[in-house]
Amino acid sequence: MIDKHSFIPFYLQIEQILSRQIRENALRPGDPLPTEAEMCRQYQVSRMTARKAVDYLVRQGLVERFRGRGTFVARPDTRVKVQLPLDQHLTSSEVASSVRRKVVNRLLHFSQQPATPEVAGALQVPEQAAVHYMLRLRLIDGTPFVYEQSWMNQALFPDLNTQALNQSKYAYLKSKGYGAVGSHKQIFAELPSTEIREALGLARDEPVLHASVIAFFANGVPFELSNVYYNQRHYTFTLDAPPRPLLAL
């Protein structure tokens, strides 16, 4: 039970109780965690306090929350960690090959819309020019890893369709005769919107890694603007710096 007279917040006391049960194997990998309602009854706390305790366990990687199923003690040997080099532009197939897991692209939305000033500037097209707009969720072994919001120049890809987007976007580009691609990335840590948080199965105050990406062909022509939201539990970004002479300042 929790100590109602302690200076330690109730949610931290519950977190300590549950984390101790996990360490001592009273709760084993794959076991369901008590529901928020059960915690409220057992510890005589509010639902918000119970949720905050679980969120804290999620951030530590001790438990995993699955939308529609509940929260379970994490299985350390099944958690996938992807390393992405910042100086390369990797496709989903290349990521799948690096982790030897099944990668699925799930199309959530696809439509055509006029380019806003921001999109037009990134794609170097006139404002109001027709662009493809899409939302996709990338899963590895069924776990949401990436939420992607993209705009592509419709004039370059008039026959882009849902079948291509549910598979490999870059396989589609290759079939159209496009070869090497590059990208310019800016990466931020931020709190996601409710839509993105729920899609990635994150805790309420858990941040994402947000990459703003402009992809371009070998001739320098930009073809896609993307906001890519990475589930930070599963990603590490790497960057190798080449040797250079030391400067005496």
Automatic annotation (TrEMBL):
List residues of the HTH gntR-type domain.
8-76
* GO BP field: negative regulation of DNA-templated transcription
Question: Is Lyase found in the keyword set?
Answer: no
Q: What Pfam families does the database record attribute to this sequence?
A: GntR, UTRA
An annotated Gene Ontology molecular function: DNA-binding transcription factor activity
Q: Would the keyword DNA-binding be found if you checked this record's keyword annotation?
A: yes
Q: Which UniProt keywords apply?
A: DNA-binding, Transcription, Transcription regulation
Sorted alphabetically, which InterPro entries does this protein's record hold?
Bact_HTH_transcr_reg, Chorismate_lyase_/UTRA_dom_sf, Tscrpt_reg_HTH_GntR, UTRA, WH-like_DNA-bd_sf, WH_DNA-bd_sf
Give the protein name, as stated in the record: GntR family transcriptional regulator
Q: Which organism is it from?
A: Brenneria nigrifluens DSM 30175 = ATCC 13028
